[in-house]
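ZP: hey, is the S-adenosylmethionine complex queued? I don't see it on the tracker
AM: it wasn't, my bad. submitting now with these inputs:
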Amino acid sequence: MSESAIVAGDSSVYYGSGYWNEIPAVYHELNRRATGDPDKGWMQHLREYHGRPFSRLLSLNCGNGWVERGLLAHGVAERGVGTDYAEDLLVAARAEAAAAGADLEYVQADINTFGFDLEGIDLVVNHAACHHIAEIDRVMRAICRLLPEDGVFVSWDYVGPHRNQYPLAQWQAVFDANQSLPAALRKDLRYPHMRSMLAGDPTEAIHSELILPVMRRYFDLEYVRYLGGGIAYEIFNFNPPFHAEPRPDAEIARILDLDLAYLGDDPEANTLFAYVIARPRKAALEDTRQLARWTAEELQREQAARAADGRYHPTGLLEHLYDRQYSLETAVATGRPPAIDGETPSLLRFWAARWRRRLRSVARRARQAVRDRRT
Ligand SMILES: C[S@@+](CC[C@H](N)C(=O)[O-])C[C@H]1O[C@@H](n2cnc3c(N)ncnc32)[C@H](O)[C@@H]1O
């Protein structure tokens, strides 16, 4: 059970622009990878897959509600309920649902402690939601309990490394792909900065790499498509030349080819995103000893992270190196020495030397000024 909600202080972090899937060619390629048809999105695919409308959906961490409005508009479900922590997003969701005449209601809750006390839910929707969930086992188990045997859990989400801390080999592949671009299209690549992530949104990709393994504990994954992103996501996100007309179509296609190839022989390990249609496996709820072990493991993990400023894993090499780079850049930009922690004595030496040099030069200029005045 959570002691206090792990949430972002400001919900505006959730709806920015400049992401890879806003590039039309990327959007169509993701459709193709998910549904086999560049012009068919996952909502239409789900409608056809199920063959009839669901009666009532639950949209997890629904944000501003565009997902469940879209699902109702596509005839995927007749009515639904959305839940989210951010009340301002729910206000917008309620207003839009009313304007669209959509039969949707909204409940404000922390998903980690939500009771899932809802009637008649036969579809649970995870769109970019589960990668924000701390108590992922608890939530997946509750969804398994909530759904009827023939119910569906549909998921379109980031399932890559926690907090986007990509392994060295992947970052090298992103770097190589970036270097292969003409200079004008190259991105100033930045490894995702852990301290900024923890400060801006401590839920971001909190246990993303656990989504599929934990889902498998409670669900049969009937339809799984690995959407990739291992190369293209970081290169296309917030890289202006790819988001303006005329678009560099040939280079977009080439990076998407590299991205697809990067999935390789182990797509689950190499993908950043996945589209899944799953059915609850009710038998999983009967093994009470196993359930107790998973609960204990989760509680221990969360308690340990609370005691470690929200960190679940030791500092990685890339995290450490980029943290130094950010500290130096911030220091140069602000003219203030970087915050030095115990791990960075070389930075301390660097700044001590720099400030000694500066003080010497000020003293030299002062002495010269005194001499000039005398003569
Ligand atoms: C990336 S957004 C996705 C929103 C929506 N599903 C969509 O696809 O547009 C993540 C959402 O998770 C919500 N969220 C984060 N932590 C939460 C928590 N502990 N309980 C409930 N909602 C949470 C945020 O407020 C945000 O709306």
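AM: back. Strands lie at 54-59, 77-84, 104-108, 123-127, 152-158, 219-228, 273-280.
ZP: great, adding it to the tracker
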